[in-house]
C-alpha cells in the first residue's frame, strides 16, 4: 500500500494564486508553501490531476483543506484515466457522482472506494467549497501497484488456449479477462466444446452477446443465450468473467451477472481469443459532454468561410430524442443553419435524414455549405455513431442576443472528432480557454450513462431513457409503478371476493411483486367459499377400451399454470381437492387386498411420487373410498372395481391431501383382457381459502410489537397490509439502519405517512383521507419505494407520490430487526389489528409470531363491519374465523353476495306451491281459539318484491290468501296498468289500489316492491333503471270480483318471474334450488337468466292469452268454464292447518 509523492502531482487547470499555492504543495498534512493548492479562480472548471506513474489499484482518496486558511472543498468529483485522456467519472452506487468533502481546513476526510479503481491518472474536480473561503485542497491517494499481461488485437489476430490437463467433471471452469476498445463490434472469445458445440462472446453495438453454435467452424450467429452490458466501446477497461459448472454458466460483465443453461458438450473448452501484440495501443480520442441545458461550445469561424464554403463534421451519441447539434450563420447570406435532432431523426431546417439516432451509439454527421447550396450527409459506420456540435445547444449566461436564442431543445450527450473545413478542433485548447468559449461542459470525457443496463424495470418492463432519467413501459406485463414492480392483480380468489367480485376469470398473481408471473384462473365464488379452479388438458370422462397388444394405458396431465404457480397456490390455500374417478367393467383397479396394484397415479409437486390409493381414501392406504367407508360391492376387496364384476361399477372420490396434488399422470393396467372396459376422470385442481390474506395479529398494548429479520429492499420495496383500529395514531412498521430507515405510521385519525431515508435526507409521502380511519373497519395500505419514486395508497383515496432526487443515493441499507406494530423504543405503538402484511410479495406470518409474543394475540375477528355491505338483497353477513360469508336463506337471491336473481320461465301449465307451517297446530275447532290467538295469525303487514317480464295482458302476478278469506292480489289490468287489490277483513269489501303506471306488458323487465304496515301501503316500480313511487288511487269493490280473479288465474301466466320474495319466504328460489323445502311444483319449471335487465324479449315464441285485435281484452271474454279454482298464475298463502304460500300457473 503506497501513497502519493510530490512528483506524482502532475497538473492543474489554469493559474494558481502564487507559486506557493501550486499543486506541488497539495499533499495531505503538508504545511510548506501556502499549505496546499488553491487556483486563481474558484469555479467548477478547475481540477487537480495526479499521475501515479503506472497503473495502480486505487482503493481510497483523502482530502484536507489548505493549512491555516478558510479554504476547503465540501464536495468534489473523481475522474480516472489510463492515458491522461478519455476520463471516466467514478460514481457511487452507479448513481451519485459527488463525494463529500471537508468541514474545516485541518481534518482529513478519507473515502474508501466501494470497488477499487485501476488507473494511472486521477483527476479531482471541485464542486463546492467553503462559502466564506476559496478552493483549497491537500490530497492523498491510497492503493497498490497493479500488474497484468496485456495483449493488443488488431481485428485479424487471435490467441488460442488449450487445457494441458483436463479438470475433473466436477470442477468449475472460470475464464476472466478485461478489455477496452473504441470499436463497438468484434468477437471477443470463442470456446469450443465437444461434438462441434461452441460458445462465442461477441461485442455488438457496445453490448456483449453470448451465442451457442453447433456446427464446424461456426464463429458467429447461432442461438443467442444472453445479452449483457452496454456502451462497452468507451475505451475503458471492462471486466468479463465466465463461470461454468455442469450445464450452467454465469456471465458477468462489470457488476452485472446473468445465468444461462448450456449443453453438456460445453462442459470443457478450448479458448480462441480473437499477429497479437502484448502491449496496449492507446488511441487518443477527446470527447466533450454536454451535461445540461446551460451547456454550449462556441468556436470561431474560419477565414475560408468568407468564400462561401463551410464544412463541418462530428460524431455524437445521446439518449435524447431531441436537441440542437450546431448552428452557424450562412456566409454572405442573411440567415442561419440549424442542425438538430427531433424525434430521434436528424433535421436540417425541414429536411431530414437518419432515424433512431438516440440509441446511445456514435453517429457521424458531415455538413457542407457552398453559397446557396447545402449538402448534408449522415453515415452510420461499423460500431461508431458520431456526434457534432458547432455553436452548440446553449448560450453564455451573459448573452441574450437574438441570434443566440435557441428555438430547439438543447442537446445533452457527447461529441468528438469535431472538424471545421477538414481541420480537427483541438478540444484540449478549448478546455484551457485558448480557443473558443464554453460553459457547463465536461471535456476529454464522454459522460454518457446507460440507465437501462442493468435495467431497473422489473417483470419484463421495457426500459427507455433520456440523458437524465429512464422510463419503464409496463404495458402487457401485469405490473405497475415507475419500475413495473407492483402487481396489478390480487393474489387469490379470496382477495377478489372481498372486493365485491363475483364468479369469473381473473388474473391471479400468487406472490404479488415476486418473480412468479400472473395467471388467468377461474374463480368460483359461492356463499361460503372462493374456489380457485386450475384446469388441465383433459378433465372429461375418458373411455379406455381393451388393448390386447399392450398392458397399460398411460396419460399425462398438463396444467394451465406453471410449476411455481401451482406450488404457490397449493401452499397458500387452506384446502385443495381434485376428483379422481374410475368407471370399470371387468377392469380391476388396485388389486386389493394383497395383490400388486394394476393402476396407480403420480401426484405432487415437481416430478411427483407414485400413489396407490384412490379418491376418497387416505394416502398409503391402498384403498378406495368404499374401503374406507366399509361399503364396497365385495367386502373382500377395498375397491368396487376390484370385485371384477361384469357390470359397470365405479370408484370415485376426492383427493384432499395437498402433498400429493396435483395429479400428474395416470397408469391403468387391467385393460388388456377381452371384455375389459374402463373410463377415468381427473377433475381440475380446486383450492379455496387464502392463509396469507387472513394472517393477522391483534396488538392490545402500545409497548407491544412483533419483530422479524431485516427487510432487504435495497432498490425496490413494496409493503402492503390491512389494518383496523380505534386509536388515532401508531406505528405500523419500522426498520432502521445506521443512517437509513423505513417507516409507515398512522399519524392522525385521517392521515397515513410513509417515510424513509436512503442517504439523501428524510423523505415523506402523506395521504390524508376525508373520513376517519380509526373506525374499527379494515383499511388497506400499499407503499412502494424504488429508484425513481415513492408512492402511498390508502383504500381508494387519491394516492401520493414523491420523486427521488436526481443522481442521489438509491440503496436502502437496513441492519436492525423489522418491527411490526411498534418501534424499538417502544414508543408510538399501534393498537389494533394488522393482517395480510406482505413485503416484496412475501407474507409475514404474524399469527405464528404472535403466539409467542406477550401483548399480541393471533388472529383478528370482526369482519362484517367492513365487508357486510357486500351482502345484498336481505342477505345476512355471518362472521367466520377467516372472513365472512353472506347467508341468502332469507333472500330471494343467491350467489356469493346474494346478488344473483333466481329467475324462471313460466308457461300457463306451471304451478308452484309453498306451505308455511304455523308455529303451533290449530285446533280442529278453530272457533274455540281465543281472539288473541286469532290476531296473532292475522298478518299485520307485508314486505313483497318481485320482478317480471311479460307480454300478457291482463295477467295476475301475485295472489296471497288465508284461511280467513283474506287475500292480496297484484295484477296487470285490462288497461295495461299495475293494480293492487287487498281484502284484509273477510266480511269487508275489497280495496283496489290502482296506479297510472302503464305499458307493464311490454316484454321488458319491471321490478315491484310493496310494503304494507297496518293500513299504510306503498308501491315502488323500478322500470328501465328508473324508480318511480306512485300515488295509489283507492276504490272499493264487492266480493263478486273474486270470481273475476279466479277467471284471470285460470288463464295462467306466460313470461318470466324473478326474485320473488314474501316477508322471509322465497318460494321460487325454494322450488328451483331447494327441492327439500315444503314446495310442490307442477308442470315445467326451468331456471333461466330471464331476470336480467336486457331489453330483449325471450318469450317471443310463447303463446299468450291476449286475444287478437286489441292488446288487453276485458276479463269476461277470457274466463273459462273451469275458473272456479283460485290460484292460476299467483302466489297463495292458505291458512288452514298449515299456512300455504302458493305460486302457481294452471
UniProtKB/TrEMBL annotation:
Signal peptide coordinates: 1-26
Keywords per UniProt: Disulfide bond, EGF-like domain, Membrane, Repeat, Signal, Transmembrane, Transmembrane helix
SUPFAM superfamilies: Concanavalin A-like lectins/glucanases, EGF/Laminin, Fibrinogen C-terminal domain-like, Galactose-binding domain-like
Residues in Laminin G domain copies: 286-446, 695-860, 917-1090
A Pfam match: EGF
Compartment list: Membrane
Domain Fibrinogen C-terminal: 484-536
Membrane topology summary: Single-pass type I membrane protein
GO cellular component: membrane
Domain EGF-like: 448-485, 861-899
Superkingdom assignment: Eukaryota
Ranges of residues in domain F5/8 type C: 1-144
Intrachain S-S bonds: 833-860
Major subcellular site: membrane
Protein family membership: Belongs to the neurexin family.
The protein, known as: Contactin associated protein like 3
Organism from which the protein derives: Sander lucioperca
